[in-house]
Design a protein that fits this description.
The complex is a heterotrimer of chains A (327), B (523) and C (159).
Chain A: H1 2-13, H2 15-48, H3 64-73, H4 85-105, H5 120-141, H6 145-176, H7 181-186, H8 193-196, H9 198-211, H10 223-226, H11 236-261, H12 272-291, H13 299-326
Helix pairs in contact in A: 2-3, 2-11, 3-11, 4-5, 4-11, 5-6, 6-9, 6-13, 9-11, 9-13, 11-12
Chain B: H1 4-11, E1 18-19, H2 22-25, E2 29-33, H3 37-47, E3 51-59, E4 64-71, E5 79-85, E6 91-93, H4 102-113, E7 116-118, H5 146-152, E8 164-168, E9 180-186, E10 189-196, H6 204-209, H7 217-223, H8 228-243, H9 249-278, H10 282-302, E11 311-312, E12 315-316, H11 322-347, H12 350-356, H13 364-370, H14 375-379, H15 386-389, H16 410-434, E13 454-462, E14 465-473, E15 481-485, H17 487-493, H18 495-498, H19 504-513, H20 518-522
Parallel strand pairs in B: 2-5, 6-7
Antiparallel strand pairs in B: 1-2, 3-4, 4-5, 8-9, 9-10, 11-12, 13-14, 14-15
Chain C: H1 7-18, E1 23-24, H2 30-38, E2 62-66, H3 74-83, E3 89-93, H4 95-99, E4 123-125, H5 132-147
Classes of the chains: A mainly alpha (327), B alpha+beta (523), C alpha/beta (159).
């Protein structure tokens, strides 16, 4: 008996054990975060629009996302007859993969990181390109003109805005001299990078909003033009997966902004994880705020803004930073 | 226009124009044309820059009569041209080469009466569904002829090599109503846009022939549910003109107060719905807040929130009380402050300006050819507002401006509508100050109306533009023919032209800016 | 072996479905404006969980038929209804959707007299147009139909 407990403790303390505990924790966090963000979005939208959001379902409407989730689980699993089955079935599952992988390298606290890969940011950026692939699969496989238009718009938009995203992160990487997320946070002990690189922060934030397909850049799901964009033909749990992936992506974008520019988990008095979540959720609030304030930009204006506006600015910023570092 | 009779006689010999009493009839001149003189007359009117206000058909038992109403935008001069057609073989020349607005009017007359227009490019069915087997507005039951049977199922958009067709509607995520537009697209650019109508055809004109004048009153509110007061007003003015019923002064002022309140609520809803089309969802809720104030005030006096039926022949349904006056004053105070909110949230927003500037530009010539009306017409630069041109009720006793735009693009229609709301507030303030006492209903209005034989035409300015009501009476207590010339119908006609070669997002922006209400198009 | 009891699962599913009814945007005529007013700040349908109006019928559970159904629109309506995955419900709002409304007259040629001639209807909300509070009451009645219990006590009328 004591031997078995000892064995269990040894397993738990080993590398593999820590990994498994970390993965389970990350999964739980992803689910709770997505549920909470749906509630937060409706409540914040409600208060901005001079009304109360969900109220009846549990105190302050807190059970509302759980009711939504159970309802979506209980819906009929409907597959339209003419869809391209492999693409149609694979798209919702594929969109969740980069989200989960990204969480593995995010440091919630000095010791709360599933594993510290030394090319952490590269892992995140590489896997986030799979999102585009899955959106295209959803749009193409649905055999629906609206989905196709939405998916193609999304591909053009994501390709255009990934470049300023990368270019805005490069100066910080140059300043911190490392690609590992934990080291970048550690280098911000004295000065947050947002003070040194304000332009990069703004460019990264705008490009991040565009990457997650949020208003004012939500053309792929433009409701008034395209019914529901690339997920028109999805119902029930498959649709829920798209939804959850979108909200989790929002959190990842804000988390990376926090890590790169706002000091990550650094902060006085309170434990590191509280600071990290506070800063990230502040940026999430700003993204939700933007959605309910601005109208949508037009497609060619969107691409013009990226190619002729953000990318030259980001290049300029990069060159100036590189020059100053050399001096 | 004085001297027009001599000009018509000189230009088209054989025509015999007659001057008619405008206060009794609603038009200035009437003349009867034949199939030979009609093209010459129409060319003359086109040269003199008239626009085709309305084209309708009436079924008298021995003959069908086509009525063309021509008018000028400024200094109104309405000419009614009639053409008699044989009911057994109804054929008439088509005007769609000269006036683009005749294209749809003629299709409508074709499917409701069976009149064939020679020279019309596409005589397909516009409103009715595929299972229709008779011409509905004919008095006798005339079955659909064999050539027209083939035209029933004729709407099939052709798909070419590099293009595809998508539907915008009839189920819309936004508030357009049941309008279906088939777009032939090349990537994101639209090659051709074709509206398909008739999804909400509720047979108002046929009902008018089966109802008495009083029984038709509720229908007027359902035709344009956002501007129901002005439709009500047009109808009661038309019948009062027909039967020569006087209206007391108090009723006149109350009528314009309630109509202007309705105009503000309609424009507010347009602002909200338009921004929801463009993607900003929050102003939609703010305008509904403001609207609720108006709806409370109007509900206290008329009983309904949306589809009012407040006016009666000779006055109002019931009098306004102090609560109405206090409520209206409070609303006016509040609304003046709200304009700064909308200014900051919407008008100054750079994304909004980029989405709307230079989009959907309408030239003055296009506006004339298509007969567009309302804020769309005023944004093109033509200062034509029927409340000033042909004043009715108490509009000649209040002072207001007619805002116009410069470029004719979508941003100008937005600005014109906001300015119109400010002017409506001014009208309401002045009318409240001048509100006289006295009776609200004329004395001795007969329960069973006995109008003289003949026709009248009445125009009013609704929030969407110029509404025209043409009533033919045969001395019974119900109309023999009632035609509604609605502004959304002529505004929609210009959409296929504006949508050529634009992006899909721009087409949605243009469609929203025309402020369409589908039940009035489909009647 | 041992019996499988589903009652609790059914109950939880019913509660979840009733508290998270997502309507599909299907406004036909005048009643659509009152439905929009019911979803706005004053009468807020989002309190009961129905705030998210989905544009695509595949993601919605509730179809509120607001307005007149004409013969040209009837196939469109049935197609939309069939595209919704079950479980789905229908509220017929306004006199036109219930029985044709004020547009029924002798010799009418274009009207479907009532949407229940086409699709099964769960709750009827009469009025022309019904007030937003009437639509909220219809909504609560639908929730009562799904779960079996009513959320707010019934208000007794004064006369």
């Amino acid at each position: 008996m004591a031997g078995m407990v000892n064995d269990l403790l040894n397993i738990a303390n080993s590398e593999a054990g820590k990994l498994i505990v970390g993965l389970v924790g990350v999964l739980a966090f992803v689910v709770v975060n997505a549920l909470m963000l749906t509630w937060a979005e409706r409540k914040i939208a409600g208060h901005m629009q001079r009304r109360i959001g969900p109220k009846e379902v549990g105190p302050y409407g807190l059970i509302q996302p759980i009711a939504d989730a159970i309802k979506l689980l209980g819906k009929e699993i409907l597959t339209p007859a003419k869809v391209d089955r492999p693409l149609y079935y694979l798209a919702p599952t594929l969109i969740f993969v980069p989200v989960l992988v990204s969480f593995i390298v995010i440091p919630f606290d000095a010791s709360l990181q599933v594993t510290d890969i030394n090319v952490g940011i590269l892992v995140i950026l590489a896997f986030s390109s799979i999102t585009i692939l899955s959106i295209l699969m959803a749009g193409w496989g649905s055999e629906n003109k609206y989905s196709l238009i939405g998916a193609i718009r999304s591909v053009a938009q994501n390709v255009a805005y990934e470049i300023p995203l990368l270019l805005a992160l490069l100066p910080v990487i140059m300043l911190a001299n490392s690609l590992s997320l934990k080291e970048i946070v550690e280098k911000q002990q004295s000065l947050w990078f947002v003070i040194v690189q304000p332009l990069a922060f703004i460019i990264y934030f705008i490009a991040g909003v565009a990457e997650t397909n949020r208003t004012p850049f939500d053309l792929p799901e433009a409701e008034s033009e395209l019914v529901a964009g690339y997920h028109t033909e999805y119902s029930g749990m498959r649709f829920a997966l798209f939804f959850l992936a979108e909200y989790t992506n929002i959190f990842i974008v804000c988390a990376i902004a926090t890590i790169f520019f706002l000091g990550g988990y650094q902060g006085p008095v309170l434990p590191g994880i509280v600071w990290f979540l506070l800063k990230s959720y502040l940026l999430v609030f700003v993204i939700i705020w933007l959605r309910w304030t601005y109208p949508r930009v037009r497609f060619d204006q969107l691409l013009n803004f990226a190619w002729k506006g953000l990318i030259p600015l980001a290049f300029l910023n990069l060159i100036i930073t590189g020059g100053l570092l050399k001096i | 226009m004085s001297g027009i009779i001599e000009e018509i006689k000189a230009c088209v010999p054989g025509a015999g124009p007659v001057e008619v009493s405008y206060p009794e009839k609603g038009y200035h001149y009437a003349l009867e044309a034949s199939a030979d003189t009609l093209p010459g007359l129409v060319g003359f009117f086109d040269e003199k820059r008239f626009y085709l206000e309305c084209l309708l058909c009436t079924d008298y038992a021995d003959y069908l009569e086509l009525v063309y109403l021509f008018n000028t935008h400024l200094s109104p001069c309405r000419v009614k041209v009639t053409l008699k057609i044989d009911p057994q073989h109804p054929v008439a020349p088509s005007l769609s080469a000269i006036y683009a607005s005749a294209y749809w009017y003629e299709r409508e007359i074709h499917e409701f009466y069976g009149v064939l227009f020679t020279g019309h490019p596409n005589m397909a069915y516009l409103f009715l569904h595929d299972g229709i087997d008779h011409y509905p507005l004919r008095k006798a039951n005339v079955p659909v002829s064999p050539e027209d049977q083939k035209r029933l199922d004729s709407f099939k958009p052709g798909e070419a090599e590099d293009t595809f067709c998508i539907n915008l509607g009839p189920q819309h995520p936004s508030t357009h109503g049941v309008l279906r537009v088939v777009l032939k697209m090349d990537g994101e650019y639209i090659e051709q846009a074709e509206p398909v109508l008739g999804y909400l055809h509720r047979m108002h004109e046929k009902m008018a022939e089966n109802r008495s004048y009083q029984q038709f009153l509720p229908n007027t509110g359902r035709m344009d549910y956002l501007g129901a007061m002005s439709f009500n007003l047009g109808y009661v003015l038309a019948v009062e003109k027909l039967c020569a019923i006087p209206v007391p002064d108090r009723a006149k002022f109350v009528r314009i107060i309630t109509t202007e309140l309705n105009r503000i609520s309609s424009h507010l809803l347009w602002v909200g719905a338009y921004l929801a089309d463009l993607g900003a969802l929050t102003p939609f809720l703010f305008v509904f807040d403001d609207r609720e104030q108006i709806l409370d005030v109007l509900e206290g006096v008329s009983g309904s929130r949306l589809t009012y039926c407040y006016f009666r022949f000779g006055g109002l349904y019931n009098d306004v009380d102090d609560r109405f006056i206090a409520g209206t004053k409070a609303f006016v105070q509040r609304m003046w402050r709200r304009f700064t909110l909308y200014e900051k949230l919407v008008t100054g927003n750079v994304i909004f300006i980029n989405r709307t500037k230079g989009i959907g530009t309408i030239t003055k010539e296009q506006a004339r050819k298509y007969g567009v009306a309302g804020p769309v017409l005023r944004s093109a630069g033509i200062a034509c507002d029927l409340r000033k041109e042909e004043p009715y009720s108490a509009y000649n006793e209040v002072e207001f401006d007619v805002p116009i735009g410069e470029h004719g693009d979508v941003l100008d229609t937005y600005r014109v509508r906001i300015a119109e709301m400010e002017n409506s507030l001014r009208i309401i303030e002045q009318a409240l100050a001048k509100l006289p006492g006295g009776p609200f209903m004329a004395e001795k209005v007969p329960k069973k109306l006995k109008p003289p034989r003949g026709d009248v035409y009445q125009v009013v300015e609704t929030p969407r533009g110029e509404l025209g009501i043409y009533i033919v009476s045969d001395e019974s207590d119900g109309p023999s023919r009632m035609k509604w010339r609605v502004p959304s119908f002529s505004n929609l006609m210009i959409f296929p032209e504006l949508a050529k070669g634009v992006l899909l997002a721009d087409a949605v922006a243009i469609l929203g800016s025309l402020d369409l209400v589908i039940p009035e198009i489909d009647r | 072996m041992f019996p499988v009891k589903f009652a609790l699962v059914e109950k939880v599913l019913d509660l979840a479905r009733a508290n998270s009814l997502w309507p599909v945007t299907f406004g036909l005529a005048c009643c659509a404006i009152e439905m929009m007013a019911a979803a706005m700040s004053r009468f807020d349908l989002d309190r009961f969980g129905a705030g998210v109006f989905r544009a695509s019928p595949r993601q919605a559970d509730l179809m509120i038929v607001t307005g007149t159904v004409t013969k040209k629109m009837a196939p469109v309506l049935t197609t939309l209804y069939e595209q919704m995955p079950s479980p789905k419900w229908v509220i017929a709002m306004g006199n036109c959707a219930i029985s044709g409304g004020p547009f029924v007259f002798e010799g009418q040629y274009n009207l479907v007299e009532g949407v229940d001639l086409l699709i099964p209807v769960d709750v009827y909300v009469p009025g022309c147009p019904p007030r937003p509070e009437a639509l909220l009451e219809g909504f609560l009645k639908l929730q009562e139909k799904i779960t079996g219990t009513r959320r707010f006590p019934r208000v007794e009328s004064a006369w």
